[in-house]
Amino acid sequence: MLAVLVGQWWNGHYRGCMTATDYDSCATRYGKGRRPSERLIRKLLARVRVGSQSCVLDIGCGTGDYSVLVFRWTGAKVLGIDPSRGMLAKARVKGWDQVRFLQGRAEELPFRDQRFDLLFSIDVVHHVGDRLRMFTEAFRVLKVAAVVCTVTESREQLCRRFMARYFPSIVALNLARFSEVSKLVNWMRSSGFRDVETEAFVSCEAVTAHYVNAVRLKEYSVLELVPDEEFRSGLRRLKEDLGQRRLIREDWHTLIWGSR
Ligand SMILES: C[S@@+](CC[C@H](N)C(=O)[O-])C[C@H]1O[C@@H](n2cnc3c(N)ncnc32)[C@H](O)[C@@H]1O
Questions:
Q1: Domain ranges (residues) in the chain
Q2: Using CB atoms within 10 A as the burial measure, which of 190, 215, 251, 258 is most buried?
Q3: pTM for this model (two decimals)
Q4: pLDDT by residue (tens digit) across 31-87?
């Protein structure tokens, strides 16, 4: 409750001061510690039949980890789209010339109507300026009966993030950046999607030095917004805790499914 109130206060007073994450400058450090969740892609592919004839779009592909996984596991024609040249440059050097990475935004997809069999976005929608437009574009480029999956976090899940134990201000910062899941669901329905439903997804992992490195490098965009002193002390506490005991990181996401 407190977190929600703080979020509303932040929304009202400080939202205008916040700047969008500059992924071009993040790109050099992105992926040094952060790891894609293979389980998440398994979940996606368990629900949607994707084969070598399928055409898949990864919206906000970033450095391309998820696009590459989908290609590797299905042989599908996979395209990744992202506005950040820096992130795309990293995606392209992964050497997967079978996956095409293009510059573009979710709100204005440079594709003809009804081209894709599956469209997904992971940890992206909170960065998109016009979220309703993102869904109307997704609807336009999907084939009839094809599926879209938007992976995001609900307000409750944002409050429970493991990282918030060390950097408490990320709760209010994230509440201001993320749309409520119910709002995203409504936007999807009003864009024409049917069978819109949500599903919780939890990943439970031991905290490793890799994760601490991702935090240190601020690979999670919200950490850029945490005050310096809080960041320093949170990182110090995280390292100390990890030195003393095994830490388990339980992070929750919401998958929002819809079909055309
Ligand atoms: C947290 S990263 C996630 C990258 C990737 N999906 C992953 O999970 O590794 C967010 C990505 O969203 C991209 N992004 C920001 N605004 C966007 C927009 N309007 N349309 C599409 N992607 C956008 C950023 O450039 C960045 O690469």
A1: 2-259
A2: 258
A3: 0.89
A4: 666 678 999 999 999 999 999 999 999 999 999 999 999 999 999 999 999 999 999
Q: Which residues, listed in sequence order, are joined to residue 251 by a DSSP beta bridge?
A: 203
260 burial class (0-12, 13-18, 19+ CB within 10 angstroms)? buried
Find the Cα–Cα–Cα–Cα dihedral 217, 37, 205, 48, rounded to 10°.
Answer: 160
Q: Which residues contact 120 (CB under 8 A, 6 or more apart)?
A: 44, 56, 57, 58, 59, 66, 148, 149, 150, 151
Looking at domain 2-259, which CATH architecture does it have?
3-Layer(aba) Sandwich (3.40)
145 C-alpha vs ligand 1 centroid, how far in Å? Answer: 25
**CB of residue 59 inside a 6 A radius of ligand 1:** yes
Indicate if ligand 1 lies below 6 Å from the C-beta of 79.
Answer: no
What residues are paired with 198 via a beta bridge? 256
